[in-house]
Specification:
Number of helices: 7
Strand content: under 5%
Radius of gyration: 17 Å
Distance between the termini: 10 Å
Number of domains: 1
CATH topology: Arp2/3 complex 21 kDa subunit ARPC3
Number of strands: 0
Helix content: over 70%
Structural class: mainly alpha
Shape: globular
CATH architecture: Orthogonal Bundle
Largest sheet: none
Amino acid sequence: MTQYHSNKLAVTGLFAALTVSLGVFETFIALPVPGVRLGLSNIGIMLCLYLLDLPSAFYVALAKSILVPLLTGNLLVKISISLPSTIAATIIMAVYIYTLKKYTSPFSTGAVGAFAHITVQFFVVKNLYIKADAIYNLLPYFTFVSVLTGAVTGYITLLILKNFPEVKGCINVSKDNLS
């Protein structure tokens, strides 16, 4: 394994640990609506998308979707809702970043990811758990809160990218200098 691949693997592991830690931490934050979370665990996924690549972000998203429910309980329900929505949000954020790269920022990427995440969650809940179409009446309210918290998560990601250049430095080992 080359130095570049070793660094990339190590940083992906660090981002996965960050994501899972934040995901578990979020469960202890009391919010007025049950099941609503701030989305802080998406910071690691966005850092992967901006600093590494889609496969690394995909691995971090998988770790988040499986390990956070495993560590916090209610495994089956949480995974059935979290896994498809996190994977969809990761793919949507990647497409958004890679197609509009110079016009995006983590701030807007967080909002786009949050929108995708909540939309897929509602679709999954509707199809697996609550068969009534009336659930979609809540979607605008949840979307509003979700996009706001996604923007905050994106802003935190932006602050990390700007204020911790060492993170970028430990990844950017030139492929030309590999031994």
